[in-house]
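User: Hey, my collaborator sent me this sequence without any context and asked if I could get a structure. I don't really work with proteins. Can you help?
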Amino acid sequence: LLARHPEIEDTELVPPVVIAGLPRSGTTHLHNLLAAATTFRSLPYWEGVEPFPLPAEAGGRPDPRIGRMDVAVQTMDLLMPHFALMHEMTTDHVHEEIQLLANDFSTMLMETLAHVPRWTEYYWSRDQTSSYEYLVTQLKALQFLRGGRRWVLKSPQHLGQLPVLNDVMPGVVVVFTHRDPVPVALSMIAMITYSERMHRDTVDVSKVAHAWVDRLERLLGACVRDRDVIPADRSVDIRFDDFMADEIGVAETVYRVAGEIFDDDVRSAVSDYLLAHRRGRHGRVHTSAEMFGLDANELRDRFTPYSTRFLT
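Assistant: No problem. I've predicted the 3D structure and written it out in structure-token form, which is a compact way to encode the shape of the chain:
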């Protein structure tokens, strides 16, 4: 695609709005709210998994990628019938750019698929600048193919790469979501251990849980260390409880920080999304530290630097 259309590289990328927060801290819900109107370009699940059509399928209608994702989602629903209680997955739902980052082997995706401690250490030891530059190239190419003016992105991975994100995407606006990290960690571990049935016969729940506690502690530590790399005029910190108390107000705040207009059409689109996607409509998953061989007090101690900075 780049060889045929070198002008893609010259495309201007308007500074994206990037949501950075742990899974289960409201990132997905906020991502969907911001993507509800036409202000921002977002990434549907089918496009995230297959961002660029095969040459023989380019321009096909209906897009074969959508059909393939329909089958994949049906398979996931069959094999993981309770996953929607934790994270609803549909062909068209707004998705994070984790697969785009995986295209250059810069991603948390590998760790969600398997227990790969050597990969984790490799990832953290490597300067991710070139991979984030490749992410920008992919975003430009996706705009070239399907339009869009300004991206709204989301990934917990960015918490550990804030200096890189700020350097590679000049002017980026970052929305930080914050929630008590103990229930967040337990909820995420439940989601990870449950979804591992897609990739392995036997899941060592305790082993996976302890590995993810280490991973999350590292991410939160990086956020504490690097949060101020993003200037105050290009960032906002949102606590989960505040978000739940005033969802439309939080969306309006993000628009204001991003320099976008939150008019009646945007308000209507956000309101319509909320009416159709009420929180907990599929039910809830209840977790405890003991389920995973963990100790809640120990978790709280490990996450204290983050909680002290952002939640007190």
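In plain terms: The chain has a mean pLDDT of 93. You can pass these tokens on to your collaborator as they are.
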